[in-house]
Fold this sequence. Notes:
Blueprint: E1 5-6, E2 11-12, H1 15-30, H2 50-59, H3 66-75, H4 78-92, E3 97-101, E4 103-107, H5 135-147, E5 152-156, H6 165-178, E6 183-186, H7 189-199, H8 203-213, H9 228-234, H10 241-253, E7 258-264, H11 270-287, E8 290-297, H12 309-317, H13 322-336, H14 347-357, E9 365-368, H15 387-396, E10 400-403
Parallel strand pairs: 3-9, 3-10, 4-5, 5-6, 7-8
Antiparallel strand pairs: 1-2
Amino acid sequence: MAFPTDPSGLGPMPPERFAELTELKAARAATPPPVLLEVDPPRTPTISTPFAREILAAALERRLTGGEVLALFEEASLNDLGDAAQRLRLKRTDPEVVTYIIDRNVTYTNLCYADCQFCAFNRHQGDGDDYLLEIDQILEKCRTVDQAGGNQILLQGGHHPKMRLPYYEEMLRAIKAAWPNMWIHGFSPSEIQHFARLNGLSHREVLSRLKEAGLDSIPGGGAEILSDRVRKILAPGKTMSAEWIEIMETGHAVGLPSTVTMMFAHIETYAERVEHLLRARASQDRTGGYTAFIPWTFQPANTPLQNDPALKAAVEAQGFLGSVDYLRTLAISRIALDNFPNLQASWVTQGKAVGQLTLYYGANDLGSLMMEESVVSKAGTVHALTRADLDEMIVGAGFRPVLRDNGYRHLT
Length: 412
């Protein structure tokens, strides 16, 4: 059967999906673009207000409300946030240990038509540097992880317009056949949404088939900010907030744990950061399926956002708060997310020195050694560390380094 071809370049697809996309594009074309909020630039308090100090004291004993979390963003100092976050980290996790994992990010394709404003990585057919990895190429990358003593592969990619679900099932089965104990952490909710649409399947059917083929867990990519105002501006071709959560909770229901990320410091407000935290917390209340929360900062270089004057101006209007904003947000994440045992630091975006500081602002995990990274590096941010570097950071901060798997089980 010859499927119609979507004029945007998405390639042949089932008629019902073609009709759905055509209707969606017509609706978007007739709808005014979302409004960029005009807000005062965020400030960084150097001294906490009395109200903020009361909230921080309360956080040591009970769950905070959304309004209280927002007040921390607006009124609490970095030092006070770090103190409260670290007290809670030492209560909620092993106080002596900081964990990490050895893995490799394998980005199976950069072909994608979601065209997110923050992405410097995606390509279209005909760009000249678009690619799709063969199964043998993926297996060779897995081999290097095994040889380095690693135990996980992170599979992620763009929304390839033509590859059907059997390609991904074959990929998973081939990896498990060669390395039965290799943990496969793969396919974020936006990819699951894309697979479901392209194959005419439900999210549950896609997730169940991928699990049967060998998938072990789902990465929290594509969460960005779980606020539909932000998502409609930066990533209208991907899941909105409720669908992102629904896909994750469906994954938990079929036995696939996952993580949650948060990409911040772009066009979002403090209130929208809080919205993201509350959505993650509520979802964890329902399923308990999230293993870690991973906040990281937007990296603007080479992204389409830089070519949109209004979006670029909105980001620049926030002012440069850099690592101070990162550490404040990391600490508030630990304080607000009372049901997330693990908080992962983003040394990939912050570098080694700030990466070590995170261990005093609520983080208990340094994430992945990351033998390969293809997305953030395209935005001009490259921080490469060795296992010795991670051990040095942890020991220097006064903790004991422990190698883990993606289920946060200690391996050393």
